Amino acid sequence: MSDNPNYTDAFRELQEIVSEIEQGEISVDQLSEKVQRASLLIGICKAKLTRTEEDVNKILKDLDGAPD
Amino acid sequence: MLEVSQSIQRTISDRYKSSFWVKAEMIKLNFYQHSGHCYPDLVEKQDSKVVAQLRANLWKDDYMRINADFEKVLKEPLKDGVKILILATIGFHPEHGLALRMIDIDPGFTLGDLEKEKQETIARLQRENILLANKQHKLPALPQRIAIISVESSKGYADFLKVLQAANRNWGYAFFHLLFPSLLQGDNAVPDIIRQLRRIRTVVHHFDAVAIVRGGGGDIGLSCYNNYDLAKEIALFPIPVISGIGHATNETVTELVAFENAITPTQLAGFLVQKFHNFSVPLKKAEEQVAALSLRMLNESKTKFTAEMKLLRSAVKSVIITHSNKTVLLARLVSQNARFIIQNEGRDLAGKAVDIRRHTANIWNSNKVRNAQLVATLRKEIAGQLREKSVRLAGIEQNLRNLSPENVLKRGYSITRSNGKLVHFSRDVKQGDVLMTILANGTVSSVVQSTSHEDNE
Q: What does the pLDDT look like over B349-359, one tens digit per residue?
């Protein structure tokens, strides 16, 4: 999966990790790596919840270019 | 003014003595729980336009009877937004103004104009197979970017934003919203809303959904939301259109075709916030699960490790004990054996010492005997030798005696000296020298007359 997944993908991957840990499918050796990945994904998801990158000025500019 | 009012009252009661049937649309029933009376708002419309409006009184007993009839026929209670045929009297009260008094309703009379228009619109949309078109869209898991069609100063808009702002404050949820102002009721609302929807279309990639938000106004003028053109525009809109038009009576076609409809703007915003919750709650749960499960896994490993360590320790301990016992035994054995060996060797040595002493004594004794024999032999030998030597000495003594000057002199030899020196050769003397000749029984002194030499010397 890409390093910059959208939140749906990120969440899906996160759930996969959770179920992997839950099912005991990973070893203690892999655990750290998985937890790191999980916290990265959680960070991505949280960022999506708490940030938007829309810019009013950009939209207004787009609107001006269009027939009213 | 009272006189004027009383005059109106008289005039009207004179003019309207009997009851009569009136066709009207009851916009709102206005039932008061406490008194049990209703004060319905009645209108008449032409081409969706309100052309007449009257207040009515429906007293408690009349209401209960009429409502029972209505429910029996229509399978639903008397409610807002129905077209009714009523039996009424008209009266004027100086304090309360003009009002129809509703005595009876013909429940057989079908639903009002609004409902008719609505049904027609629905039927047409259905025919064109677009009634549910907007509902086919997929709302993003996080509907963050909302184009709002509303009135900036309206209570509904304020309510809507309040919920989004609270969600941001309480949970950090980020919404982006942009207002596209529009009339929301009355005849001009339809083209105005359609115009804004078309504007949003041009920038639709910036948005996840369009929210039509209205609230705080009366219920009159909502017929616009049953308009076919508006409903079609919404149905065919490329992203979800959600509505919170804020009236609790009768669902309009707009609300019907909308992706999602909520009774109030507050509830509509709540719907969006709920989407965030739906994402955030499992996220939080996943976060907790990752932490809890990892911890559990680590703890399990730790427990397992500790158990293994314990096992190892006890195994090692038992091995050590076994070996140390063995070692002690072996040490004891070694020392016993050593002692035994030492004792044996000691005894052996003592025996050997005795042997050595005995042997030494033997050797000593045998040597003593041999020495004695040797001494005896030596003595004998020495005595022999001494005897032999003394015999030889006696011979030599005899020879020596024979060689002594007296014996030589006795045999006729003499010794000549000159000036004290022995004369060996004739040249040792010259004429005139006095010679002293020693003989066996005396000396003779003579003077040399001559000398001769034999050259063979």
A: 898 889 888 98
Percent of chain B whose pLDDT exceeds 90: 35
Query: Who wins on pLDDT, A15 or B148?
Result: B148
CA angle B52, B58, B64 (to 5 degrees): 135
- pLDDT of B152-203, one tens digit each? 898 899 999 999 999 999 999 999 999 999 988 766 788 999 999 999 999 9
Burial of B197 (0-12, 13-18, 19+ CB in 10 A): buried
Interface of B with A (CB under 8 A): 141-142, 144-145, 171-176, 178, 195, 199, 202-203, 206, 276, 279-280, 282-283, 286-287, 289-290, 293-294, 297-298, 301
Q: What angle do CA B319, B324, B329 make, to 5 degrees?
A: 130
List CB contacts (< 8 A) between B141 and chain A. Answer: 7-8, 11
Closest CA to A54 of B178, B392, B226, B448: B178
Predicted pLDDT of residue B426: 82
- Asked if the Cβ–Cβ distance from A51 to B199 is below 8 Å, we say no
CA distance B384 to B374: 15
Say which of A35, A63, A68 has its CB closest to residue B203: A63
CA dist., res. B383 & res. B403, Å (int): 30
Check CB contact of A31 with chain B, cutoff 8 Å.
yes
Contacts of B367 (CB under 8 A, 6+ apart): none
- Asked if residues B265 and A27 have their Cβ atoms less than 8 Å apart, the reply is no
Report, as ranges of residue numbers, the positions in chain B whose pLDDT lies below 50: 110, 220, 457
Residue with tokens 């709102």: B28
pLDDT for res B247: 66
pLDDT in tens, B280-309: 888 888 888 888 888 888 888 899 889 999
How close, in Å, is residue A46 to chain B by CA atoms? 8
- Whole-angstrom CA distances from B219 to B189, B215, B319 are 14, 10, 92
- C-alpha distance from residue B201 to each of A59, A60, A67, B204, B229 (Å): 12, 13, 11, 5, 16
Q: Mean pLDDT across the stretch A7-15?
A: 86
Nearest to B297 among A15, A31, A38 (CB): A31
A48 chain-B contacts, CB cut-off 8 A:
142, 144
Binned at pLDDT 50, 70 and 90, residue A1 comes out as: very low
B241-to-B97, B210, B260 alpha-carbon distances in Å: 43, 5, 7
Closest approach of chain A CAs to the CA of B124, in angstroms? 29
φ/ψ of A66, rounded to 5, equals: -95, 155
Non-local (6+) Cβ contacts of B274 within 8 A are none
